[in-house]
């Protein structure tokens, strides 16, 4: 298989956008976490330098793991995505032999294609969950399944519902991040869909779903044969913009690989993979929609196009942290999570992220709007494809090539 990291840096996608959905007035936002979750105080702030981290294997035997999730009605269990098209259960630090979901016959896997995202409906209704995958025709699919009512350890394949179906002529920049926000809406990270430099200008256009974070309401399923099944919250920022896709929440992204909400305050953290010079971490503070992170005018905080001194404008939102490829061995940022667990009090309030190729982990103060030099908190030989939290807010990661689930803790703690 072509290394994931190599393909994160190039590629293009084309999109035949789905029919436009209806618009639904939004319920008031809440930052309450899903059932079973614990939360550190909202005002918790780091002090001093971040602690050194330990990254320890929990188990192996996974095939190309790319993400981790947990289910509201089963907070002690982890669900790990395998890029080939399976969701595996980890319980009591052991890998359950039977897959929770196996759609490998539907999935085109390899490079940046495959089963890429997983998120469980916060309400827990029917054990419903959503997946983002590349199908055997190369299209990007967001679909839902319900859990078998007679067996909570297996999905019911006959319950599949397609929510988004995006055409894709190329095999990379597929995005694939899925996460439910504290407002109950589903947020979807999509790649820019262009070759090098985004020649389709997806990051500059609002008439495409590419190069975006989308926000849709999937808890109000439209009945019958209406397509799409979802509705768009009325407070999405481009609902009333002529020619714009109403699903868009954020724009100007190249390839957002893993997006996570801070469970304490609702901030949305985005790791956006760079063209080949700079990797960036972006944030949308709680409730901030309509932000433009600058791609392909900007790569990180630097001008990408030859537009002189006018590339930095008030309309563009610059990253809160970045690193360039002069750092030895780096190639592609893997988005992380703001730690809000209880086991490591001196890690609370730090956003932890990593680089896929180098295995380096960094941490930044999640309350700051700019960190010039992220602190190195661990150096490993793992190929980190995801960093996520369990129901209690403790951190885990996946080693893509090694097929391992990893536990993140404080060294010596």
How would you explain this protein's 3D organization?
The chain is 1% helix and 38% strand. The protein is mainly beta. It has a domain at 7-26 and 59-326: TolB, C-terminal domain (Neuraminidase, 6 Propeller). Strands 3, 4, 5, 6 and 7 form a five-stranded antiparallel β-sheet that branches. 55% of the residues are buried. Residues 1-16 and 27-38 have low confidence and may be disordered.
Helix-strand blueprint:
Blueprint: H1 4-7, E1 22-24, E2 53-59, E3 65-71, E4 74-82, E5 86-91, E6 94-95, E7 101-102, E8 115-120, E9 129-134, E10 140-147, E11 155-166, E12 177-180, E13 186-189, E14 212-216, E15 231-233, E16 248-251, E17 256-261, E18 268-272, E19 278-284, E20 298-299, E21 302-303, E22 321-324, E23 333-338, E24 350-355, E25 360-365, E26 375-379, E27 384-389, E28 395-399, E29 404-410
Parallel strand pairs: 1-15
Antiparallel strand pairs: 2-29, 3-4, 4-5, 5-6, 5-7, 8-9, 9-10, 10-11, 12-13, 13-14, 14-16, 17-18, 18-19, 19-22, 20-21, 23-24, 24-25, 25-26, 27-28, 28-29
